[in-house]
Specification:
Number of strands: 14
Strand order of the largest sheet: 4-3-2-1-7-6-5
Radius of gyration: 27 Å
Number of helices: 20
Length: about 575
Amino acid sequence: MEFSELIKVSKVDDVVLYRPFVAPVKGTLCISSHHLLFSSGTEGTMELWLLIRNIDAVEKSILNLGGYQLSKAKSSQEAGRLMASSGTITLKCKDFKILQLDITGMEECLNIASSIEALLSQNSLDMMYPFFFRPTYMNMLEGWDQYSPERELAMLADHTDAFRISYINKDFAVCFSYPSVLIVPKSIDDEVLKKSAKFRQGGRFPYLSYYHKKNGKMIFRSSQPLIGPNVRRCKEDEGLLGTIVGSDERAYVLDTRSSQSIQQAKVMGGGTESTSNYRNWKRLQKALERGRILQESLIKLVEACNDQSHNMDRWLSKLENSKWLSHVQSILNAACMVAQCVEREEASVLVHGSEGTDTTLQVTSLAQVILDPDCRTLMGFQSLIEREWLQAGHPFQARCTRSAYSHAKLKQEAPTFLLFLDCCWQLMRQFPCSLEFNEQFLITLFEQAYASSFGTFLANNEKERFNNNVKEKTHSLWSWINSQSEHKRYINPFYSRNLFTIWPSIQPQSLQLWQGLFFRWNSLTQHKNEVWNAINNIINCEFWHSHKDKERHDLHLSLNTTEEQLSK
């Protein structure tokens, strides 16, 4: 179906736009295949572009003074009265923004709402906006090589020769949610990997997530073993984990499920590693919530943030009932546990839950931010997202289809990635000089994961992106972020490289609500923005002067050298 067939009306005049802390504006509203465009059409024109994919809920109300339905109007006079009725469309967006449109004419109001809902219902991947986004200032080939297993192996070679590149997953035959090129232990052949994959849910065999250069210990991730109620064994899987630790070393398996979930999984054919079969591996457990519980937590949190009652006790009660900060605390706690095993106990760790695509990735990626200063740089964090989320098979399309306002029945939606970003913000707040990127970068990643002009977060895994030619037909988000005009927006002006592990406090009093994200549409941020702009200007000015001082110093040395040579 063509987009034009879904749009009942493409242009409406005399629409009034209401936004928080901004005066109402009257203008023209236009609908295209992927955007809503509002323009004031006056001197000093105000334009608002809203990606339709960013809309989470469409709510409409009609003020019909005549009390009739337009279809039942018996005369042109009655029809005129109904056409003069006003309607309001409230657009609640995935980034928590709320816009209100007042439209004259009930029919036009309903047609606008119907057109938006019809465009939102188009879920075909190749019909999404990134496949139509063609900026002339960007190269479509750039940004897709942000992370490469071959480059990663080359960097590992400076510290260990225990790994190799494997193409066992070519055409995604072994595991649909792993990339086609893999880094695997050199001592393990591909046949062992295949048998281990068959023993793991979804084929996700234990895979290298991080190598700690300080002591050579590693973090691996996988899905649950399929031991079932009869405690099946897989010699190849046991051998694969056996190569990670020496005979006199110890290692840990961190399971992110509750005991009840593990028992239920055993009945269904899953389970966890038996310490009698996996020698030197000790089991740890840190139950993390997932799925519907997290989505409902986000809904309650956003509802609390939108509460305009100004009753502090009521607001604090709503915040506590959402349990959002409890989820943040649990993830930070699990990541710190992994980091402690690697750094202080000098033991390798395998992390998994059930599928290994949600809580597992939260823990492994956050542990790396805690341990590795490279992951705390702007480029390093992008590589981390690419390696530990995108290529590791986090189902972004399924998890980010809906946000906090949707009235649709929950399916696979969950703010898994948003919780990880929130944990990173907590680290940023506790260690303000240790992360090279700023809060705006984290907010941008959140926005792009839910609705984007770029193809980076499209689909659920590398196989789907390959089948839909995402890398050939869309632009990469990283190319845009690293462009000269955008890059400086995401730099922390206070950054100073910290080579040490950063150990966050996870006590409740140490964790705060991420106001810069959850309150940014509900509070006036003008003064905060002015302060940050002033700080950046001061730092840029100091850098410019120091750079000029260095240039003058170098020029002075050059002149002195020239004079000495001439005098000789």
